[in-house]
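>> received
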Amino acid sequence: MAIEPYADNFIPVVPVDHIEHTEENPFCYDAACDCHEDDEAIAAVYQAVQDGLITPEEATDFVLGRLP
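>> returned
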C-alpha cells in the first residue's frame, strides 16, 4: 500500500507571541496594513499632539508602527 503524496497548496502560518493591534497600540509595523488608515486612531494621535502629550515626530513614528 503506497502513501498518497501531499498536495503542494499548503500555506505556512507563523504564530506570533503578541497581539499586533490593541487599544494602547492600534498601529503595527506592517506598512500594508489598513491600521495606518484608521481615521479614529489617527485623530486620537493628533489630539495627543495638540494636547502636548507627544511630539509630532513621536506621533509619526507611532502611526508608522515604529514605537512600542
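>> The mean pLDDT is 86.
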